[in-house]
Design a protein that fits this description.
The protein is of the alpha+beta class. It has one domain: Alpha-Beta Plaits (2-Layer Sandwich), CATH 3.30.70. The protein is about 25% helix and about 30% strand. The protein is built from 2 helices and 6 strands, in the order βββββαβα. A hairpin with a 5-residue loop joins strand 1 and strand 2. The radius of gyration is 15 Å and the shape is globular.
């Protein structure tokens, strides 16, 4: 449960994160990327979905890496649809679909 403090900021519950392990993300962008962009998003799996979106899936070392990736998406002018933090096992299942 989140609580709002008197300043209007949302106080989030404390969660333990193992910072020694990369965090797996699924980042959905609008539109299909050509195969030439594989190197641009090195280390991530690029999945072209039937609905026209592209799903980037894989581990990122830390939030700085996530923000760097989001900057690349912005610089390409691609509309960001969603960002989800996922369990590594779930991201492997998604790759097989």
């Amino acid at each position: 449960m989140t609580k709002q403090n008197g300043t209007g900021n949302v106080k989030r519950p404390q969660t333990k994160t193992d910072t020694s392990q990369p965090i797996h993300y699924q980042i959905r962008i609008e539109g299909h990327l050509d195969a030439q962009w594989t190197d641009w998003f090195s280390g991530l799996t690029i999945t072209l979905e039937e609905n026209g979106d592209t799903l980037l899936t894989g581990p990122l070392a830390d939030q700085a890496a996530l923000f760097g990736l989001l900057k690349k998406i912005r610089d390409l002018g691609l509309p960001l649809v969603s960002i989800d933090r996922v369990d590594p096992d779930k991201s492997d299942i998604e790759k097989e679909k």
